[in-house]
Structure formats: structure tokens, C-alpha cells
Task: inverse folding
């Protein structure tokens, strides 16, 4: 459900003036948070985080304005992702058109005095794909996060109001806590929906339906092609070339299947008629009776006609199976063997080219640490405020096909591994990421943006220890990364140069919006768990094993006045 | 400049080959001298400081030398009359003649200083503890016209170095004076006198809240010549001494100078780059003055409404140890006075939270010592084995060398001093990611019960429902702080000859 929107737009005007403008707007936003002041972007209800920043000109490319947003998607099907991002752009414009107009006025081909509609259309041009997009709290929308936080706060208040001394069975205590909640929170708990596990691709969650969705048209084409051959042979025997002439046994089998389906359809129709007649409304006028019958017949015919293509395709596939069963298996295994051969050859070629680079990449120079303390101070000015932090890193991808292909493959693999195999430890074992993305940008650059909790040192420290392999696999393909080993080893494990390099590649986070600046990933997950557990307990009337309450109760404490 | 080459490991019972180049403070905290003076000095005349003063402190004759090194066996030092350690700030090194090129190789946290605004946020030095209120190390950006009413402020720009003098309390003042009379001695802008207050019977130093302190010190490979108790790891040298592999198997970033600036080969050469290793055998020293409000602390713990918790029980749960030093995970009740020795505490220091008290029912999850050194407690959250979790935590250890002070205004507290090779991954990480973290170990919205900023709360876990104490007052305020570099002796000689 959560998705990433990235807009990358070349800047035509004075990019430094744009930086100043963004800095002013960002500072005003930060100052407002100190006073819990609302902000225009709050109106974009699906928005979690949004940032605007500038990538300085270089590598033959102009300065770029980047808008990065993380929002709740509406559609589960990735093929409709496009419309979802466009819808979200519309909502952004509605929420804060003045800011967007002000900022995008610096960009190329921006229409003067643009209307809201023109702004929307302009922004949609600059959508950019993310090669890797990670969500730390999958399935939790902005609304759900807010509800969970409110419920958790109410539960804590209810715990504080418990009668003392605390005695009795755990079930009794939890029931008392639940009954101490305000009515609105109790209702929310009772009506807790399942937490959608968005990160799983539909292929994983509904494999058969998803496979069918992707395969139905190719299968339909093949099925109908075979059925047409069968019909052609039945209509005019011997008219087809021998190599594509179905055997008589195939014709007979197809006719048998057709008859079988007709019988089944007839039986189903009979049942349908019986049920319909049983439910037929009484006391109708003849005219109304004719109308009802006509409508129902029309619906029946329409449904039958809609089913005809599928029916024909299935019939054709059954004919094909009967006709070329062994050949189908041969074809399948041949295709599989060919694919494996291609993979093996590719892997060998990749490995040989890798060895040519060298195991330890001796051409890599030792990273020369010279910090630009002024730039570092500007970057750190906005860090360690409230619970969350933001990092933007721009690095240059190393030249060469090997690097390019490896980077793409690594990003693809990690993107899907994180989605399909939900990792409770979080991306690269970091449990503090709200949203993170890697995007390949024009000019051969790799853009990394992360909204995370805590400080820079702790965040990258985990990357350097527990998540070093994955991090190295990505960034070892960029310039200046600490010396790697076979592209995946070392690298980030050399913690100080890794952090120093990250600092030197950092871009100032001038404008950064957060919907819930005081909530960390741990707090969000904790609140979600509290609600889910309480919902489970209440749905079972608190008749669960006593030990189940332990984890729930351990989160809370009574407070003396 | 540094490389990422990995050097072969050393045997744990073998001292470093160059231990004589390491200042003695890294090997021991001079426990045989009860007194110590922390002298923050300002360099007005660098030439005088270098040649007469530094060279006198580093006299080639051991009988005349003041600065001792880590190879001196401890019992020999007992017969000396004092011990001295010296460290410098970035401004001090610049004044002594290090070039901008050399200074650029120091890590940014050292060059920026502890009082930088973003760092203060990161370390939790806010409100009453903010650098703008410090009595020493206050950033120059905080200068105000009305500072004239605070003549005793020592500004950050005034601090070029730190001289620590250890001696018996009755001779300490005289030792400091003797050093100050050496020709070329820089001006001591602030001298903070401290004393070791020992717990009766155990020989363990006490801090002002009455707790035994300095128990969990790391065993450093090649430096600490004591055998640790079973289950306690020896930490790699490079976590505390530059120039040696650290727990990650890499060399920590070490400041260096161009070869042209060391024509006499006074400094060792870096292995793969054409530069001289200025930082070898040195370390980074963190110093903070932590003023402790003992009255507020005692009032809080003794005024608890729960009679079963009031007093020592609550205090112990906030700290994580009983006042005599026994850990809560091993001792549900403390032993009597005199029954616990320092050896007992060291031998019993091999406990693990994950294997002995995972849920915090004995030692609360947010207790001070549990935050400062989680041991294997991160195992469950990170899905590691206890041993792996311990190794991870060992990348964030610090070597403490602090002492208690009581000044003329009856203010008391701790001069916190720690040594580490990587300020950011060690001291700053412990301070910001563990002590001041509001999400530590699954807790929500609470920081360290001793060091945290008011208002805050403290939760004591219980199998049924925990107990929470809210609105904890401020017990500790930071009154000063700075980062220093503690050079090796060769580097000191190099500085003295610039």
C-alpha cells in the first residue's frame, strides 16, 4: 500500500536561490513543529514524509530539484501504480499549491502563472522510478498510525487508573484495562482491520489468481488458436498442412469436452432457473413480469457471451493438452534448460569480468578523509531534532557495464527480497527506517534517501555491522566507496571511511515534512501491536491463555500520583 | 589518513611492543594517588610551551620526566610522587604548530568540539545542561554583554589543553605548583581538584550519590595485564589506542602529517600512504564536568510513596547496582558492609542481561548501568546469539578515568573522563543512542534515570504490571566539557621540537 513518489526536475533558474527559498520554508516548518502548528501538507492525508532538495550541477548535468514523497497507495495491483501516483500528485497540489508553484517556478519549461491543473500536469511529467523502495512499517497508513497512537495513549491512561493493588488473573486485569478505554477507542479496537501486508507481491499472497492474471491473455491466444485449428479440420478435413493438423482423436476429445461443458452449463442453468423461479417475486403485473424475465434473460445471455472467450480458450487448451502432451513437457523442460544455461553463462561472464577488476580492487585508492566542515555543519544543523532524521546521499556510479548491470541487479534483488520475504529485522537489520529508496539519476548518479529514527552515527553503524553485505553490494558500485572484496565484501565494514564517505556525499536536507515527527518506528510498531493484541483478546472475550497477556502487560506500568 | 588493512591479532597476555610510547593514563587511572588536578590551560606563547615546558615534562632521564608511560609497572609508580598526563584540543595543536593539512586529518567531532550546537543536541546537553551555561568550554558564540558578571567562565577558545596531575591529596597542590613554575608553562585557566573517595572495606571508589563506581572497565588487549574473569572478553587494542586493529578488525582513523613536516623521522610511517602517523599510540580523551544534585536524588528516592521501594531499593533500581556495587541481576539483596571486596565485584562482573534477566525483572531495562553497557541485552531484539550481541556492544566501550570533585561552593559531582579511539562510535554513541535514547530496549519515552533531562519517567518491570515513577527531577547537570587528543610520547616529542 505505501508507495514512493520521486519527481526529478532540471532547474533552469538560479539553483542557489532555490536552495535559499527551500531553506526558509523548511526552517519555518521546523519552527512550527516546536509549537505543534499545523501545516498545509497535513491536508494530504495519505502523505507520510515529503522532502524537497537540490542536487547541485555536475557531471555535465544541470542542477536538479528532487521531490521525494512516501504515501499510502490505494491500489494493490502494481500495474495501476501509475494512476495512483498521479492521484497523489493531484492531492499534493490541492494541499499546498503555493509552495509547489513557488518552488517549481525555478524549473525548466514551467508554465508561467500556471493554474493548479497545469501544475499537476507539469509535475506528472517528471515522475521517476525508484529502483529500491523500502517501507519500515508495512501496511500502516497515516490514519492507522494516528488511531493506534491514540489507542495506545488511552490504554496507558487506563492502566494508570486501575484499581490498586493490582491483583487477580491477567485476563481480568486486561479486561479492566479495556473497559477503562473511552468508547471511541474501544470501538476502534473492536473494529481493528487486518493489517495488510503490502510488501508481499500479489504473486506471493494470491499466487494462483496472480499467475492467472498475467497468463490469461497468452493462454487465451494459444487456446483459441488451437480451437480454430480443430474447428478448421472438423469443417474441412485435410485442408490444413500436416504439421498443424490435429489428429482425429483430438477432434473427438474436443467434441467430448464440448459436450461435457454443455451438459455442465445446462445443469447449472437448470439450477439457476429453479432458484430464480423460487425467488421470483409474486403479485406482479404481466408487464412487470415480462420486464423481469427479459432483464434476467438479457443478464444470462450477457454473462454467457462474456464467458465465451474463456470457454473457447479452455477448450482449445484441453485440445492442445490432448494433442501435444509430451511435446508440451519437452518444450517446458527445454525452455527451462535454456534459461538456466543463459543464467550460468551470464554468471560466468560476470565473474570473469569481476576477476579482471581484481579481488580487492587495487586500483581503488584509499579513501582520503578531508571533511568539508562548513558543509558538514550545514547538514548537521537539521539533524537530531525530534525523533526522526533524514539523510540524502548522492554518489557517482562507477563507469563500466559490469558496474551498471551489477547495481541494477542488486537493487532489483534487494527490492523484491525486502517485499516478498518480509524481514522482521528491517532493511539491512536496521529497525529504524520509516521509508528508504535508492534511485538512479541522470548523470550516472545514485540517489539514496532515508527517513529514519535516531542519529546518523547509530543508523550507519548498523549498516556497517549487521547490514554491511547488502549495503556494500549497492554502494561498492559507486565512486569513493571504501575498498570492497569481490564487490560484496568489506566496503561498509570499514566503518569510519564508510561513515565519512556517507557524510561527504550528503546533501543538505533543506525542506522536510513529517506527518508524525514524534513517533519512531519502534513506537509505531508498538502501538500497532497493542491494538492488534487488544483486538484479539476482546474478540475472544479475553478467553486466551494467561501467558498471552504477559507480552501485552509488560509494555505498561502503573504510575504513582 | 588511514588504511583499512587488517593486522594480525596479538596474544592477550602480551604487552604491546610500543607500550612505552603510550601515556600511562591508558593503562591505569592512578588509583594509588587519591588526589588529582585537572588543569585546563591556555597557550599564549607556543614556542615557550614547546621547548622549555614540554621538553621538561618529557625529560629523557626517567628520574626527571613527569609524563609517564604505560609500561611502568603499577607498583613502581607507587613509589613515585605523582603521575602526569597531557592532552590537547584542536586549537592547542594548531598553536603548537600542527599544520592545517595535519589538523584536517583529525576526525570532525574533535575539531568541532563537544559544545557545537548540533553535538549538544545529539548528546542531550540541552536546557540546564546546554553549553551556553557551562562554566568552562562554553562556546564563544554564546558570549553576551552580560557575561561580565561571570568572570570565571573559561571559554572554548581559552582551552588549548588539559594537564592531569595525580598525587596524594596533601602534596597535590604543591605538585601542580611545581609544574606551573617550569619555564614556559601555559596559563592554567581552570584547575579542578578531585579526590578518590573509597568505599569502606571494598577499596572501590564512590561517586557522590554513594554508589561504587568504575567497576566495569574494559580489559584492553596488550595494555591491561590482568586476566579477566571467565566470560568477559578482552577488547581489541584499537578500540582505545590508535594504530592498532579495533573490534571491527580495522585500524581506527589516525591523524597524520605530511612527510615533509617530519624530516627527522620522529614519527612512525603509515603503511600504505606516504604520511607520518601522528596519532599512533594516542587516544581521544573526553572530559565532562557532571554536577550532581545529591540532595534532590536522596529526596526523590527516600520520598517514594512505596515503603518497600523507598531508599536504597529505588536508588539501586535506577542505577542497576546496589550501592556496594553488586549487580541487581546477581544479588536480590545487597551484602553487608565489608562483605564485598573489589575482587568480588570484578569476578562477578561476567553476567549477561539476556541470559539472566531478559525482561528486566531484576535490573530494570532502563537502569543506568544497563543502558551504559547493555552486554548481551541486544540479542533478542537483533536476533543474535548472546555472544554476538556482546561482541556488538564491545564496539562501543569506553575506558573511564573520572573522579569525584567537591568545590568551594559545596557543589559536587563527577569529572567524567573517558578514553576511546573513536569518539563518534564509542562515547557519543553510548551517550546518544543508549543513555539518552527514548526508545532504548523497547521502552517508550524515557531516558536514563540518572543522567536524563527532566521531566522524565522511569519504569521498573514486573511480571504482572510494571511500576513507573514519573516526573523525575534533574539529578545531573553538565557544567563543562571538551574533547582532547592524548598523544603518544613520540608525538609529544615531535610537538616539542616543532
Result:
Amino acid at each position: 500500500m505505501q508507495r514512493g513518489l520521486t519527481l526529478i526536475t532540471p532547474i533552469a533558474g538560479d539553483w542557489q536561490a532555490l536552495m535559499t527559498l527551500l531553506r526558509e520554508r523548511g526552517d519555518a516548518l521546523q519552527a512550527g513543529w516546536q509549537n505543534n502548528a499545523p501545516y498545509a501538507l497535513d491536508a494530504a492525508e495519505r502523505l507520510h514524509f515529503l522532502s524537497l532538495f537540490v542536487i547541485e550541477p555536475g557531471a555535465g548535468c544541470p542542477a536538479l530539484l528532487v521531490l521525494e514523497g512516501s504515501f499510502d497507495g490505494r491500489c494493490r495491483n502494481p500495474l495501476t501504480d501509475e494512476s495512483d501516483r498521479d492521484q497523489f500528485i493531484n492531492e499534493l497540489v490541492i494541499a499546498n499549491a503555493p509552495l509547489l508553484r513557488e518552488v517549481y517556478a525555478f524549473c525548466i519549461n514551467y508554465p508561467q502563472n500556471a493554474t493548479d491543473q497545469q501544475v499537476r500536469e507539469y509535475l506528472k511529467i517528471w515522475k521517476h522510478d525508484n529502483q529500491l523502495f523500502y517501507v519500515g512499517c508495512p501496511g500502516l497508513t497515516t490514519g492507522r498510525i494516528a488511531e493506534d497512537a491514540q489507542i495506545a495513549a488511552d490504554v496507558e491512561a487506563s492502566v494508570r487508573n486501575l484499581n490498586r493493588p493490582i491483583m487477580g488473573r491477567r485476563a481480568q486485569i486486561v479486561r479492566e484495562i479495556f473497559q477503562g478505554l473511552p468508547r471511541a477507542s474501544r470501538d476502534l479496537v473492536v473494529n481493528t482491520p487486518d493489517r495488510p501486508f503490502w510488501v508481499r507481491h500479489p504473486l506471493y499472497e494470491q499466487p494462483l489468481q496472480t499467475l492467472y492474471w498475467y497468463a490469461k491473455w497468452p493462454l487465451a491466444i494459444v487456446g483459441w488458436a488451437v480451437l480454430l485449428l480443430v474447428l478448421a479440420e472438423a469443417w474441412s478435413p485435410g485442408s490444413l498442412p500436416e504439421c498443424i493438423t490435429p489428429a482425429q482423436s483430438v477432434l473427438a476429445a474436443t467434441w467430448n469436452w464440448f459436450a461435457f461443458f454443455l451438459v455442465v452449463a445446462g445443469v447449472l442453468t437448470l439450477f439457476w432457473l429453479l432458484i430464480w423461479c423460487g425467488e421470483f417475486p409474486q403479485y406482479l403485473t404481466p408487464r412487470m413480469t415480462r420486464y423481469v424475465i427479459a432483464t434476467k434473460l438479457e443478464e444470462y445471455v450477457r454473462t454467457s457471451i462474456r464467458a465465451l472467450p474463456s470457454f473457447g480458450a479452455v477448450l482449445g487448451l484441453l485440445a492442445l493438452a490432448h494433442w501435444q502432451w509430451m511435446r508440451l513437457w519437452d518444450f517446458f523442460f527445454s525452455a527451462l534448460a535454456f534459461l538456466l544455461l543463459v543464467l550460468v553463462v551470464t554468471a560466468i561472464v560476470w565473474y570473469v569480468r569481476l576477476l579482471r577488476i581484481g579481488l580487492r580492487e587495487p586500483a581503488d585508492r584509499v579513501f582520503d578523509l578531508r571533511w568539508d566542515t562548513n558543509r558538514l555543519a550545514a547538514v548537521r544543523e537539521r539533524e537530531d531534532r525530534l525523533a526522526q532524521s533524514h539523510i540524502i546521499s548522492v554518489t557517482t556510479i562507477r563507469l563500466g557495464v559490469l558496474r551498471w548491470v551489477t547495481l541494477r541487479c542488486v537493487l532489483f534483488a534487494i527490492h523484491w527480497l525486502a517485499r516478498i520475504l518480509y524481514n522482521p529485522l528491517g532493511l539491512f537489520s536496521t529497525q529504524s527506517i520509516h521509508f528508504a529508496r535508492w534511485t538512479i539519476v541522470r548523470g550516472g548518479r545514485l540517489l539514496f534517501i532515508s527517513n529514519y529514527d535516531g542519529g546518523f552515527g547509530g543508523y550507519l553503524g548498523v549498516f556497517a555491522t549487521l547490514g554491511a553485505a547488502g549495503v556494500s553490494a549497492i554502494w561498492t558500485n559507486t565512486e569513493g566507496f571504501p575498498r570492497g572484496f569481490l564487490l560484496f565484501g568489506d566496503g561498509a565494514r570499514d566503518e569510519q571511511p564508510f561513515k565519512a564517505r556517507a557524510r561527504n556525499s550528503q546533501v543538505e536536507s533543506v525542506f522536510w515534512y513529517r506527518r508524525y515527527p514524534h513517533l519512531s518506528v519502534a513506537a509505531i510498531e508498538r502501538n500497532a501491536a497493542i491494538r492488534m493484541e487488544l483486538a484479539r483478546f476482546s474478540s475472544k472475550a479475553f478467553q486466551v491463555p494467561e501467558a498471552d497477556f504477559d507480552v501485552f502487560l509488560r509494555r505498561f506500568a502503573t504510575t504513582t500520583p | 589518513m588511514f588504511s583499512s588493512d587488517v593486522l594480525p591479532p596479538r596474544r592477550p597476555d602480551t604487552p604491546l611492543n610500543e607500550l612505552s610510547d603510550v601515556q600511562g593514563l591508558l593503562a591505569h587511572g592512578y588509583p594509588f594517588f587519591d588526589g588529582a588536578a585537572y588543569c585546563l590551560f591556555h597557550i599564549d606563547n607556543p614556542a615557550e610551551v614547546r621547548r622549555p615546558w614540554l621538553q621538561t615534562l618529557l625529560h629523557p632521564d626517567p628520574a626527571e620526566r613527569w609524563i609517564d608511560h604505560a609500561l611502568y609497572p603499577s607498583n613502581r609508580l607507587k613509589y613515585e610522587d605523582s603521575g602526569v598526563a597531557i592532552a590537547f584540543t584542536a586549537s592547542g595543536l594548531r598553536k603548537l604548530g600542527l599544520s592545517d593539512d595535519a589538523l584536517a586529518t583529525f576526525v570532525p567531532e574533535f575539531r568541532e568540539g563537544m559544545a557545537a550546537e548540533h553535538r549538544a543536541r545529539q548528546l542531550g546537553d540541552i536546557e540546564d545542561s546546554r553549553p551556553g551555561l557551562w562554566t568552562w568550554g562554553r562556546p564563544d558564540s554564546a558570549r553576551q554583554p552580560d557575561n561580565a558578571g561571570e568572570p570565571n567562565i573559561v571559554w572554548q577558545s581559552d582551552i588549548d589543553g588539559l594537564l592531569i596531575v595525580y598525587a596524594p591529596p596533601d602534596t597535590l597542590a604543591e605538585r601542580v605548583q611545581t609544574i606551573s613554575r617550569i619555564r614556559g608553562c601555559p596559563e592554567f585557566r581552570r584547575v579542578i581538584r578531585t579526590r578518590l573517595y573509597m568505599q569502606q572495606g571494598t577499596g572501590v571508589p564512590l561517586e557522590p550519590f554513594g554508589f561504587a563506581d568504575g567497576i566495569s572497565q574494559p580489559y584492553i588487549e596488550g595494555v591491561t595485564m590482568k586476566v579477566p574473569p571467565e566470560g568477559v572478553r578482552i577488547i581489541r587494542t584499537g578500540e582505545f589506542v590508535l594504530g592498532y586493529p579495533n573490534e571491527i578488525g580495522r585500524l581506527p582513523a589516525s591523524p597524520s602529517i605530511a612527510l615533509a613536516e617530519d624530516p627527522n623521522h620522529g614519527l612512525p610511517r603509515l603503511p600504505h600512504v606516504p604520511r607520518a602517523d601522528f596519532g599512533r599510540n594516542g587516544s581521544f580523551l573526553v572530559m565532562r564536568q557532571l554536577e550532581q544534585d545529591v540532595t534532590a536524588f536522596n529526596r526523590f528516592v527516600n520520598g517514594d510513596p512505596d515503603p518497600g521501594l523507598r531508599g536504597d531499593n529505588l536508588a539501586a533500581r535506577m542505577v542497576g547496582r546496589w550501592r556496594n556495587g553488586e549487580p541487581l541481576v546477581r544479588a536480590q539483596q545487597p551484602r553487608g558492609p565489608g562483605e564485598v571486596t573489589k575482587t568480588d565485584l570484578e569476578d562477578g562482573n561476567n553476567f549477561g542481561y539476556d541470559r539472566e534477566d531478559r525482561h528486566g525483572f531484576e535490573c530494570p531495562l532502563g537502569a543506568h548501568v544497563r543502558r551504559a553497557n547493555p552486554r548481551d541485552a541486544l540479542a533478542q531484539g537483533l536476533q543474535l546469539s548472546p555472544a554476538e550481541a556482546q561482541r556488538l556492544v564491545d564496539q562501543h566501550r569506553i575506558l573511564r578515568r573520572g573522579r569525584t570533585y567537591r568545590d568551594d561552593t559545596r557543589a559536587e559531582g563527577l569529572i567524567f573522563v573517558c578514553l576511546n579511539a573513536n569518539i563518534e562510535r564509542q562515547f557519543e554513541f553510548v551517550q546518544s543512542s543508549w543513555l539518552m535514547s527514548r526508545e532504548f530496549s523497547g521502552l517508550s519515552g524515557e531516558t536514563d534515570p540518572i543522567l536524563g533531562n527532566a521531566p522524565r519517567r522511569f519504569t521498573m518491570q514486573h511480571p504482572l504490571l510494571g511500576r513507573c515513577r514519573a516526573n523525575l527531577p534533574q539529578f545531573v547537570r553538565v557544567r563543562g566539557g571538551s574533547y582532547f587528543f592524548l598523544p603518544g610520547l613520540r608525538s609529544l616529542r615531535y610537538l616539542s621540537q616543532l
Chain B touches chain A through 56 residues (CB under 8 Å). The radius of gyration of chain B is 22 Å. Chain B has a mean pLDDT of 89.
